[in-house]
Design brief:
The protein has five helices and six strands, in the order ββαααβββαβα. By secondary structure, it is α+β, with helices and mostly antiparallel strands. The chain is globular and about 50 Å long.
């Protein structure tokens, strides 16, 4: 599975999934479950790199003294919004507002999709951000389309 990053705005980012063939309904469900689960964890603040106490402890976590104050004092890192998944031919896409979630969220999504591609659904590529020239983002053909929504 190829991974490509394009223009990236965490508050307005599209994820593009290229399948090797037109995905079946079951394959769509697998992919959508990964993204939905990932978003749900992000909505709950799961991707907060400021509070990685277990990861930072290393391999030995027996009797780890977990500090609740460190967790409580870390800046909130939550995702805000997710669109429905859309499909066209062998492409799928989904829009996110990743909010203040940290970049570790992207690594976790990529790792999950790589394994999904090995075990269940062959994914040729994941493109993070930007736009697919053959499948335009709604409103992107208008100059300043982001600002147009804010003027109303």
């Amino acid at each position: 599975m190829r991974i490509q990053f394009r223009e990236f705005d965490p508050f307005n980012v599209w994820f593009w999934v290229e399948f090797n063939t037109v995905p079946s309904e079951m394959e769509k469900q697998y992919v959508e479950e990964v993204f939905s689960s990932w978003f749900f964890l992000g909505k709950l603040g799961g991707f907060n790199a400021e509070n990685l106490q277990v990861q930072d402890a290393g391999l030995e976590v027996s009797y780890l003294p977990y500090d609740g104050d460190v967790a409580d004092d870390s800046m909130m890192a939550v995702m805000h919004n997710m669109s429905d998944f859309e499909y066209e031919s062998n492409w799928g896409r989904c829009w996110f507002d990743l909010g203040t979630s940290d970049a570790i969220a992207l690594d976790i999504l990529i790792n999950s999709l790589k394994q999904l591609s090995k075990d269940f659904v062959t994914i040729d590529s994941l493109i993070v951000g930007g736009e697919n020239e053959d499948w335009r983002v709604p409103g992107s053909s208008e100059p300043g389309f982001v600002m147009d929504n804010q003027r109303n």
